[in-house]
Amino acid sequence: MGVLRPFDNPATVTLPPRAAPLVARVDVLVVGGGPAGLGAALGAAETGAEVALVERYGFLGGNATAALVMPLMSFHNEKKQAVAGDDTRLLPTDHGEGDVVVAGALWVLLERLIRRHGAVAPSQATGYTVPFDPELFKLVALDLLDESGVKLLFHAFASDALPVDDGWQVVFEGKSGPVVIEARTVIDCTGDGDVATAAGAPYEVGRPDDGLVQPMTLMFRMVEFAQPKFAEYVREHPDQWRGVHGLWDLVREAGEAGELRLPREDILFFATPHEREVSVNSTRVTGLVGTSVWDLSRAECLARRQLEQIDHFLRTHVPGFEQSYLAQSGVQIGVRETRRVLGDYQLTGDDILTARPFADAIAQGAYPVDIHNPAGVGTTLHRVPQGKAYDIPLRCLLPRDTERMLVAGRCISGTHVAHSSYRVMPIAMATGQAAGVCAALAAQSGHVPREVAATAVQHELRRQGAALREGVGEH
């Protein structure tokens, strides 16, 4: 594969010094416009802070739009097994077959999307996931930030963080050259912990025994998909269908024939709000890390070759796909796991699987521990106890060895196992909103985030409609 690789033991080149304009000073700077960044910006603005958000692409949404990670995964603690065909809609205040454990900014976004026919409300019929349209997601996210008064900068990539007496100066690279934005508090929502680690925060990568991370996946959308024909095939061949996510026999036969050469055992289909469209989550690239430009380049090439195989397989072997075609793939490959910034507390797999409560809880999750094999085929799934949710403490958002810095999203402080649950987008948005509230309260009080009382963050989160465990932040 013709991917550039660096020299072994490369020589170094000394770059000339440079100056960069200081273009803005704000209370709160959010770096990254994905779900965590959206939650952070909305939470901070609603608390009364002056907020700027900087995003590397020309649109908002992060993995939801750039990587086409569709749909939003479940943010409910199901009280009993979902029943296929039950179309009961579950709203934030309902307590039916599963309680909502993430609300707040997430539900502000979803309600707007649903009104614009850009998302399907979660229900037992959707498996409590939320199918959404990525283009409408971009527009709705832009509307919400505009209405909140958040200032935006697109096409800028964070490259460094410089400490000042009462905050940070973050350096961004772009077409205009380097620019600097100064903030009292910075919230790292990059997913990779780029800013926090540049500021000196310690971090871990991968599982403890070998450092391997969960694989990357390039998502794509197929249109002109004949769902009724596909559904009829599934009903007539139940022995070939295992659950809702894989035509195992057809996949196995194609693999034996050399048509599919994937380090994965199944093909995952997800509905979208459009009847003749389906989202496909089936490429898998292992052994590479998303913080390496060399590995990312190789991963993009490998994943697109896998995409080509899957597209051909679907159109030639799977009923309902005969007239379909590939409409869109992600702007970039979806990265599940890179750096996990070490905070004042590190959430563990045991914390999740025992639904451990914390006094300084600022978000909840109920998504399973979901580990895609870092070394190849297979996925490990362990569920949170039925009817329960786990807490995420504020301390997980506070990087060690730094002040006036918070992290949110998949780079918060946790182990490899815990990360496999809290990495999903609804939980990322919840930790983002909490980080935004904490940052805004710090700016208003003149304190650093570490000095902000968890009870104050909890109280403001409840005021903003966030879902916290009963009793948390109520006194």
UniProtKB/TrEMBL annotation:
Gene Ontology molecular functions: 4 iron, 4 sulfur cluster binding; metal ion binding; oxidoreductase activity
InterPro entries assigned to the protein according to its UniProt record, in alphabetical order: FAD/NAD-bd_sf, HdrA-like
Organism field: Actinokineospora iranica
Keywords, comma-separated and alphabetical: 4Fe-4S, Iron, Iron-sulfur, Metal-binding, Oxidoreductase
SUPFAM superfamilies with a match to the protein in the record: FAD/NAD(P)-binding domain (SSF51905)
Protein name: FAD dependent oxidoreductase
